[in-house]
Amino acid sequence: MKKDIEIPKVKGVHIAVVQEEHLEYKTLDWNAYIINNSDTDLDTVLIVSQGKSETKMTPPMRHTIAKLPARSYAKIEYMQEQVLALNNTFKVTFFEGNQMFDKTYLFRKNTINAKALQPLPLMQLKGILVK
Protein backbone atom coordinates (compact mmCIF):
# COMPACT_ATOMS: atom_id res chain seq x y z
CA MET A 1 0.00 0.00 0.00
CA LYS A 2 2.76 2.50 0.95
CA LYS A 3 4.68 1.67 -2.21
CA ASP A 4 1.72 2.96 -4.26
CA ILE A 5 1.95 6.47 -2.78
CA GLU A 6 3.97 8.75 -5.01
CA ILE A 7 5.63 11.72 -3.31
CA PRO A 8 6.98 14.09 -5.98
CA LYS A 9 10.29 15.91 -5.49
CA VAL A 10 10.19 19.65 -4.98
CA LYS A 11 12.26 21.48 -7.62
CA GLY A 12 12.90 25.18 -7.98
CA VAL A 13 11.44 26.22 -4.62
CA HIS A 14 13.88 27.56 -2.02
CA ILE A 15 13.93 29.28 1.34
CA ALA A 16 16.37 32.16 1.82
CA VAL A 17 17.27 34.39 4.75
CA VAL A 18 18.33 37.90 3.81
CA GLN A 19 19.86 40.66 5.91
CA GLU A 20 18.08 43.90 5.04
CA GLU A 21 18.18 47.42 6.35
CA HIS A 22 15.02 48.49 8.14
CA LEU A 23 14.54 52.04 6.87
CA GLU A 24 12.42 53.30 9.76
CA TYR A 25 14.52 51.92 12.63
CA LYS A 26 17.92 52.07 10.86
CA THR A 27 18.73 48.46 11.84
CA LEU A 28 19.92 45.40 9.92
CA ASP A 29 17.20 42.75 10.17
CA TRP A 30 17.13 39.11 9.07
CA ASN A 31 14.06 38.19 7.00
CA ALA A 32 13.03 34.80 5.60
CA TYR A 33 11.71 34.53 2.02
CA ILE A 34 10.29 31.79 -0.15
CA ILE A 35 11.60 31.77 -3.73
CA ASN A 36 9.69 30.14 -6.59
CA ASN A 37 12.41 29.71 -9.20
CA SER A 38 10.25 27.38 -11.32
CA ASP A 39 8.11 27.99 -14.40
CA THR A 40 4.88 27.08 -12.59
CA ASP A 41 2.67 29.07 -10.22
CA LEU A 42 2.31 27.69 -6.69
CA ASP A 43 -1.14 27.64 -5.10
CA THR A 44 -2.10 27.58 -1.42
CA VAL A 45 1.43 27.74 -0.02
CA LEU A 46 1.44 26.78 3.66
CA ILE A 47 4.59 27.40 5.71
CA VAL A 48 5.22 26.37 9.31
CA SER A 49 8.47 27.69 10.81
CA GLN A 50 10.03 26.82 14.14
CA GLY A 51 13.36 27.16 15.93
CA LYS A 52 14.68 24.33 18.11
CA SER A 53 17.72 23.31 20.13
CA GLU A 54 18.32 20.69 22.81
CA THR A 55 16.96 23.01 25.51
CA LYS A 56 14.91 25.70 23.71
CA MET A 57 12.01 25.76 21.29
CA THR A 58 10.05 28.60 19.72
CA PRO A 59 6.32 28.32 19.12
CA PRO A 60 5.46 27.34 15.54
CA MET A 61 4.65 30.25 13.22
CA ARG A 62 2.13 29.56 10.45
CA HIS A 63 1.96 31.47 7.17
CA THR A 64 -0.22 31.21 4.07
CA ILE A 65 0.38 32.57 0.59
CA ALA A 66 -2.66 32.12 -1.68
CA LYS A 67 -0.64 32.22 -4.92
CA LEU A 68 3.09 32.53 -5.59
CA PRO A 69 3.63 33.21 -9.30
CA ALA A 70 6.40 31.54 -11.30
CA ARG A 71 9.81 33.22 -11.02
CA SER A 72 8.87 35.28 -7.95
CA TYR A 73 9.44 35.45 -4.21
CA ALA A 74 7.56 36.47 -1.08
CA LYS A 75 8.57 37.50 2.42
CA ILE A 76 7.71 34.95 5.10
CA GLU A 77 8.79 36.49 8.39
CA TYR A 78 11.25 38.59 10.37
CA MET A 79 13.77 36.49 12.32
CA GLN A 80 14.99 37.79 15.68
CA GLU A 81 18.71 37.53 16.48
CA GLN A 82 18.04 35.03 19.30
CA VAL A 83 16.53 32.41 16.94
CA LEU A 84 19.61 32.41 14.70
CA ALA A 85 21.38 30.33 17.39
CA LEU A 86 18.72 27.61 16.97
CA ASN A 87 18.06 25.07 14.22
CA ASN A 88 15.32 26.76 12.15
CA THR A 89 12.97 24.61 10.09
CA PHE A 90 10.51 25.73 7.43
CA LYS A 91 7.94 23.09 6.46
CA VAL A 92 6.48 24.08 3.10
CA THR A 93 3.40 22.53 1.49
CA PHE A 94 1.89 23.76 -1.77
CA PHE A 95 -0.09 22.76 -4.85
CA GLU A 96 1.20 22.81 -8.41
CA GLY A 97 -1.94 22.22 -10.44
CA ASN A 98 -3.73 19.30 -8.75
CA GLN A 99 -0.52 17.83 -7.30
CA MET A 100 0.48 18.48 -3.67
CA PHE A 101 4.15 18.96 -2.78
CA ASP A 102 5.83 19.01 0.63
CA LYS A 103 9.38 19.73 1.77
CA THR A 104 11.19 20.69 4.99
CA TYR A 105 14.06 23.19 4.79
CA LEU A 106 16.58 23.39 7.63
CA PHE A 107 18.93 26.21 8.58
CA ARG A 108 21.35 24.71 11.10
CA LYS A 109 22.18 26.76 14.16
CA ASN A 110 24.55 29.69 13.64
CA THR A 111 24.63 29.22 9.84
CA ILE A 112 22.66 32.42 9.34
CA ASN A 113 25.38 35.06 9.56
CA ALA A 114 26.93 37.82 7.47
CA LYS A 115 29.92 35.64 6.49
CA ALA A 116 27.66 33.08 4.76
CA LEU A 117 25.95 35.50 2.37
CA GLN A 118 25.81 34.48 -1.31
CA PRO A 119 23.92 35.76 -4.38
CA LEU A 120 20.29 34.62 -4.47
CA PRO A 121 18.26 33.63 -7.54
CA LEU A 122 15.67 36.21 -8.68
CA MET A 123 16.17 38.59 -5.74
CA GLN A 124 19.24 40.61 -6.77
CA LEU A 125 20.31 40.36 -3.11
CA LYS A 126 22.72 38.29 -1.04
CA GLY A 127 21.52 35.87 1.60
CA ILE A 128 21.68 32.32 2.92
CA LEU A 129 19.87 29.80 0.71
CA VAL A 130 18.49 26.32 1.43
CA LYS A 131 17.44 24.31 -1.63
Secondary-structure element sequence?
Answer: EEEEEEEEE
Major sheet: 5 strands, antiparallel
How many beta-strand runs? 9
What level of helicity do the residues show? under 10%
Which stretches are low in confidence, meaning pLDDT under 50 for 5 or more residues running? none
Number of helical segments with 4 or more residues? 0
Q: How would you classify the helix and strand content by structural class?
A: mainly beta
How far apart are the termini?
A: 30 Å
Q: How much strand content do the residues show?
A: over 45%
Strand order of the largest sheet: 5-2-1-9-8
- Cα shape: globular
Q: What's the overall average pLDDT, rounded?
A: 94
Please tell me how large the radius of gyration is: 15 Å
Give a written overview of the molecule.
The chain has 131 residues and is mostly beta strands. It is 0% helix and 56% strand. The strands form two sheets. Strands 5-2-1-9-8 form a five-stranded antiparallel beta sheet, with no helix packed on it. It has a four-stranded antiparallel beta sheet with strand order 4-3-6-7, with no helix packed on it. It is globular, with a radius of gyration of 15 Å. The model has no long low-confidence stretch (mean pLDDT 94).
